[in-house]
Amino acid sequence: MKNSLRVERAIKNITQGELADLIGVSRQTINTIESNKYVPSTVLALKIARVFEKKVEEIFELEEGE
Amino acid sequence: MTFVKFVLLLVNQTLQIMKTRFLFPHKLKKIGVIIFLIGLGISLISTYFAPDVTKYFISRSNRDSSSLTPDLIGILITDAKLITLIIGLVLISFSKEKIEDEQIAQVRLDSLQWAIYLNYILMLICVLAFNGFDFLAVMGYNILSPLIFFIVRFRWKMHHLNNLAAKEESLS
Lengths: 66, 172
Fold this sequence. Notes:
The complex is a heterodimer. Chain A is mainly alpha-helical. Chain A has 5 helices and 2 strands. Chain A starts with a strand and ends in a 5-residue tail after the last strand. Chain B has 7 helices and no strands. Chain B starts with a helix and ends with a helix.
């Protein structure tokens, strides 16, 4: 699964730490999601989408072959 | 059938509670460290007063004797050492992080599995390598080893994740 979290964050001009605070997770978790090392739960993905006022599919998408 | 369903429901609910609540509050971690240090202190003292592990195993049955013999004092000190070390390590292991989230829960679970694997691999080697009272000593250390392996692996992973995030922060 890949995501456009980094881009969305740049558009909204917030840091990983600020995004983490907004959804109540650790900064490390946002960082590993961005670098595709951690796949968030559905709840967390929905919370992230809510911060950017977008649909989950606009931020997270399956990679080819998945 | 209803009974099975009931038991399954009970197990499920317990798992749900465990997922969210079977961790101690974050501030108990510090208390755990203090209790653990007290345990280490007692360990240092006990090298002078208490029997070694094997003697402890053998003489445990004398614990109920009414007179305060040097042997009994040694046993009581070893008891105190084990109790403080175990409580300390459990609190350090299973207190929440400052910010607790799903990834940390995942890392914790992975580390626990890793620690148990490592522990039993070492146990297999020890079964083959040690005999008699040496093996009893191994069993003694085995009281604490899974928790120690867990803590080391968990802290190392968390440290690694912290470093990655810090690097990212300094880039942006």
